[in-house]
Write a structure and sequence with these properties.
Helix content: over 70%
Order of helices and strands: HHHHH
Number of helices: 5
Structural class: mainly alpha
Radius of gyration: 20 Å
Strand content: under 5%
Largest sheet: none
Number of strands: 0
Oligomer: single chain
Distance between the termini: 65 Å
Shape: elongated
Length: about 90
């Protein structure tokens, strides 16, 4: 009986760890991807540039100083072009 309870507790703990890791990764991905639409907002409402720049400073730094820029630059440029068309 105790072995079954231990297995259930391990399974529950493993599931919780998996969900926590998946949630953190998803939130970080959404944070990075949300900068694209915020580029449009900043183009339309220049007053928003300073707080947005502060909030996204880690993403901007990573894009400028790591290989993330290889993927990030085309993505951000897409949103900048879109902002110019709106």
């Amino acid at each position: 009986m105790a072995a079954t309870t231990d297995n259930l507790e391990k399974n529950h703990t493993n599931r919780m760890i998996s969900w926590t890791v998946a949630t953190v990764i998803t939130l970080l991905l959404l944070y990075v991807l949300s900068l694209g639409p915020m580029i449009v907002v900043c183009k339309k409402f220049p007053i928003a540039r300073e707080p947005v720049g502060i909030f996204y400073r880690p993403v901007i730094w990573l894009a400028n100083h790591t290989p993330l820029g290889i993927v990030a630059d085309p993505y951000f440029n897409f949103w900048a072009r879109l902002a110019n068309q709106i």
